[in-house]
Design goal:
The protein is mainly alpha-helical. It has 2 domains: 62 residues, no CATH class; 73 residues, no CATH class. The chain is built from 7 helices and no strands. Helix 1 packs parallel to helix 3, helix 4 crosses helix 6 and helix 4 packs across helix 7. It is elongated, with a radius of gyration of 17 Å. 21% of the residues are buried.
Length: 140
Amino acid sequence: MEKTQFVELVEIAEQVVGQFGTSLEKQQLAMLRRELERAASKGDGKAIQRASAEIEALRWRVLFKHDWFWREIFDSLCQPNTPFIDPAEAQTLITKGQAAVSGGDGEGLREVVRALWQIQPKGNAEAARERAVRSGLRKF
């Protein structure tokens, strides 16, 4: 990972955690950022990778707690050009997800999104999450 990638990783995490995280999560991020900076100054590749992975995991944990995030992911998965291994199953799940959204069933929506990720070609689920993060952060 290049230095610019670290900076971007930390900036995105700070934006997410700063806006949606608890004070404990903000403290965790500050600690991880210091850990990453120390590792980078020493050139310790393993410590850099570990701190980067922990920062990324913290970012996702914060996002996954919010219903709006799951709704953004669901909306992106409902787009007509979204690839699925089993389109018929995807349509069934999308219908179920729409019912969960209408009924305010956050846990049901989470289950639908996870099931949709399972029937996407490899690599597409991560891209869908990133699109949701970017669109969600612009809204809030």
